[in-house]
Amino acid sequence: MLNKLIISVVFTLMCCLSLAAQNENEVPFPNEVVVDSIIKIKDPINPLSPAKAAFYSAILPGLGQAYNKKYWKIPIVYAALGTGIYFYIDNNNEYNRYRDAYKSRLAGFKNDEFYLDAQGNQLDTPRITDDGLRRAQKQFRRNKDLSLLITVGLYALNIIDANVDAHLLQYNIDENLTLAPHYNIHQLDAQSNVGLSLNFKF
Fold first, then answer.
1. What is residue 194's three-state secondary structure?
2. Among 173, 166, 176, 183, which residue's Cα sits nearest to residue 198?
3. For the whole prediction, is pTM greater than 0.85?
4. How many CA atoms are closer than 13 Å to the CA of 140, on its beta-carbon side?
5. For residue 110, how far is the Cα from the chain centroid?
6. Residue 184 · residue 192 · CB < 8 Å
7. What is d(CA 70, CA 72) in angstroms, rounded to the nearest whole number?
8. Average pLDDT in the 152-179 region?
9. Fewest beta carbons less than 10 Å away: which of 20, 39, 150, 201?
10. 165 with 54: CB under 8 angstroms?
11. CA-CA distance, 168 to 158, in Å (whole number)?
């Protein structure tokens, strides 16, 4: 009985001392509270914005990227399309060159450019045979078609990029939640580690 009484008195004293220590450490509540957070108000969502961007890019490549204010993409669009058009024109010219020589030989002429040497002198046997001309025509026709297909694909990709970019601009992108790739080298065995890191700040 005495032990229980001593334990309860000690427990009561400890609780009182703890409350007194808490009261001493209390910080008085300020009369004014200053909030330093900045509230960002986003523009209202325009559901027709992606369709407009795609339409502008279909009319003139790069115009949809300008509508989305992604001006750095415009030179990439024109470089890609220009490269495709350049290869199409080059392959088309080479195809016409070999086709004209082959047609000339079929007509019985021996005065095409492959009957001439580097100085322009007439040769008895051509530098490229009839079979070689046929193979060259097939190769350049295939390359020409492939260049056209790639150019059309890049044109479509320009439209898709403008549309998707306009969709993504309407989402709330917060830096407090990010998913980013990371690459580091292990210090002990010098092996590389590749992965994803998810950062959440609050």
1. strand
2. 176
3. no
4. 17
5. 53
6. yes
7. 6
8. 85
9. 39
10. no
11. 15
